[in-house]
Amino acid sequence: MTIMTKFLGATAALALSAGAALADPALIYDLGGKFDKSFNEAAYNGAQRWAEETGGTYKDIEMQSEAQREQALRRFAEAGFSPVITAGFAFADPINNVAADYPDTKFVNIDGWLPEVPENVLLINFQEHQGSYLVGMLAAMESKSNTVGFIGGMDIPLIRHFACGYAQGAKAVNPDITVISNMTGTTPAAWNDPVKGTELAKAQIGQGADVIYAAAGGTGIGVLQTAADEGIKSIGVDSNQNHMHPGSVLTSMLKRVDNAVFEAMSGGADLETGTFMTLGLAEDGVGYAVDENNAELISDDMIAAVEDAKAKIISGDLEVVSYYANDSCPALEF
Amino acid sequence: MDKMPAWADAVLVPLISLLLAAFLSALVILAIGENPVDAFKLMVDGALMRSSGWGYTLYYATNFIFTGLAVAVAFHARLFNIGGEGQAVLGGLGAALACLFIPWPHWSLAIIGGAFAAAAFGALWALIPAYLQAKRGSHIVITTIMFNFIAAALLNYVLVNLLKPAGSMEPATANFPEATHLPSFQDMFATADNPLFRGSPANVTFFLALIACVLVWLLIWRTRLGYEIRAQGHSETAARYAGISPVRITIVAMLISGGLAGLMAVNATMGEAERLVINAAEGAGFIGIAVALMGRNHPVGVLMAALLFGFLYQGGAELALWTNIPRELIVVIQALVILFTGALDNMVRMPLEKLFVKRRAA
C-alpha cells in the first residue's frame, strides 16, 4: 500500500510538471494487466526499483485494445518520454511502424522480434528454454508419480518454447517421465483466466501429475492455488512466485523482466539501440528462485544437479534445443 | 393512444439513460478519489477536440457500425446474432487471404476484393448456425456464441501454423503488400502545414460503413426481402401464412448479418493493422449488440450509438493514459452505459410513457 501511495504521488507530481517532464521513461504493459503477479508485474517491479533507487519518475499505462498500442507509443513519444519501454511481443510491430517518426525517442521491447531492428529500437529477448530446463529438472527430481505437468497461457510459439525447455529438463533427469502439457486457450484472454487454470490443474492432477509448471501469466494464479489446495507442488513463472503458497510452490522460473526494465530505464539517453539483446543463464536473465519460502523443498542434491547443468549450459557443453530452431520440440508433442 | 411522441422515443429516452449512466460513473470516479469533471473533460478533449482524437473515435465507430448493423439486421427477423465476434474474426481471415495472395494493383480494387472476401467469410460462418436454426431448431443464441470460440481457435490454428512468418513471435500474418494499404484520413485530409488526423487509424473504410448504413436502410424498409424479414420478426406464424418461408428468411437474414460483421475486418485489418493479428475483432462483435440495442435497430440509431461507443473507447484510452483511473474502471463506465441504454431501457421508458400519457389525459 505504501509503495502504491508513493507511486500515485510520483505520477501525480509528474502530471503536474507535464511540460518539464522531458526524457522521463515510460512503460507500457500488455493486455494481461499491470498486476498479473507475473510478466507485467515483473516489468512494474523493475520500474518501481528504478524509481526508488534513482528518485526518478516514470509514466505507465495498461493496454485495452490493439489500436491503442500505436496510440500509446505515439502519445508518449510526442510528450517527450524516452525510453518508451514496452512489455510483450505484440508491441514489436507497432514500434516498427512509429519508430521512424520519432528519431529522438528510444523504444525498447521485451520479447519481440523484428526482421530488421530500427536505429532507435532495442529488442530484448530471454532464453526462457534454459531457465525452463532447470525447473524441469527440479520438477522431475521432486516428482514421485513420474508425471509432471505444464500449463501454458495462450498457445503461441513463445509458450511452446517454455514447455519445450521444461520437458527436456525433466527427461534429462528421468527419460521415462511423462510430461503432460496443456494450453489455456487460443486468445489473449488465456493470459488472465485463473478459473480455467484451476480446471486444467485439476485435470492434470487427475492424470497423476504431482508437479505442475504454469507459464500462463495471471492464469497461473489459479494453477498455483489449486496445487496448494490439492497438496501437490507447483512452479511459478517470470516473477518469483514462491511466496504465494510457501511449501507448495517448488520454485519459480525467473525471467528477469524487472532487470531488463531497470537496465533500460537506467540507460536513459545512453541506451544502446538498433540491436537485439539476448539474456540467458549466462547473463542472469533467466534462472530459478530459491528463497526462504522454498528452501526446505529443494535439497542440496537437487541444487547440485541443477547448478551442474547450469554451468554446462553456460559453457556450451549442454545444448537445450530451442522450439524456435525448427518449430518443433524433441521432447514434447503439441 | 398510450404512446409517447416519436421524438421522445428516439431522443429523450437514450439521453436520459445516458445522463443516468454518466451520473453513476461520476459517483464511481469520485469514490476512487478522482475528479469526475476533470475526467470527463479529459475524455472529451482526447476524443473530440483534436483531429487525431477524432481519428480514433471514428476508427472505433467504424467497427461498431458494421457489427451494430449486423445485429440489427438479424434482429429484424427476430434472430439474436451474438456471433458477430466470430464472424468478424473469419472476415479478417478472408480479407487477409485476399490481400496476401492476390496481387492487387491499387487499393481501390483491393478494398472491393477485400470487402467481398471478408463479407463472404463472415456470411459463411453465420450460415452454419443459420442452417441449424432454420432446419434443426438449434437456438441461434447458443450456436452463434459457440461459433465465436470455434472461430478464435480456427484463426489461432491458421495464424500459428500456416500464416505466421518464420521467426516471428506473434501469431499474426506478414504485413499486407503496399498496394493493399487503405488510405487513412491522414493521407486523405492532412496537408503539409495542417497535419490532420496524424497517426490515427481512421481510414476510408468509414465511408464504406456509411454506405452500409444506407444500404441496410434500403434493404429493411424499401425492398421486398426487407418486408419479409420484418414480417417474420413481428410474427413468424403470420409470415408463414402469407407464404414467407421461415427457412429462407432465417438463412438470408443471417447471411447478411454475418457478411456485415465480416466487413468490420476490412477496417481492422486492411485499414489499421495492415496485417491480420489474432485479436483483430477485440470485442467489437459484442459491442455491436449494445450498439444495435441503443440504436433501436435503425441504421441512423446504430450510427449515433457507434459514435458514442467510439467516443467512450477513445475517451477511455485517454483516461488510462493521463490519469490513475485503472482500466478496469473504464470498463465499468462503458458497462454502465451499456446497462442503462440497452438492458435497463424500460426503466426510463415506462415512467416516461406514463408521464406523457398523463399529460395528454390532463
Automatic annotation (TrEMBL), chain A:
Q: Which domain of life is it from?
A: Bacteria
Q: Which residues form the signal peptide?
A: 1-23
Membrane topology reported for the UniProt record? Lipid-anchor
Q: Which Pfam families match?
A: Bmp
Q: Where does the protein end up?
A: Cell membrane
**Gene Ontology terms: cellular component:** plasma membrane
Domain ABC transporter substrate-binding protein PnrA-like span(s) in chain numbering: 35-318
Q: What is its main location?
A: membrane
Q: Which UniProt keywords apply?
A: Cell membrane, Lipoprotein, Membrane, Signal
Q: Which PANTHER family match?
A: ABC TRANSPORTER GUANOSINE-BINDING PROTEIN NUPN, TRANSCRIPTIONAL ACTIVATOR PROTEIN MED
Q: Which family does it belong to?
A: Belongs to the BMP lipoprotein family.
| Name assigned to this protein | Nucleoside-binding protein
Automatic annotation (TrEMBL), chain B:
GO MF, one example: transmembrane transporter activity
Which organism does this sequence originate in? Thalassococcus halodurans
Q: Give TM regions.
A: 57-75, 87-104, 110-128, 140-160, 204-221, 249-270, 276-295, 302-323, 329-348
- What protein name applies here? Nucleoside ABC transporter membrane protein
Subcellular localization(s) per the UniProt record: Cell membrane
Gene Ontology terms, cellular component aspect?
A: plasma membrane
What keyword terms does UniProt attach to this protein?
Cell membrane, Membrane, Transmembrane, Transmembrane helix
Q: Which Pfam families match?
A: BPD_transp_2
Q: Looking at the keywords, is Protease present?
A: no
Lineage, highest ranks first: Bacteria, Pseudomonadati, Pseudomonadota, Alphaproteobacteria, Rhodobacterales
Q: Has keyword Repeat?
A: no
Q: InterPro entries from the xrefs?
A: ABC_transp_permease
Classify the protein's membrane topology as the record does.
Multi-pass membrane protein
Query: Per the annotation, which location comes first and is thus the protein's main one?
Result: membrane
Superkingdom, taxonomy of origin:
Bacteria
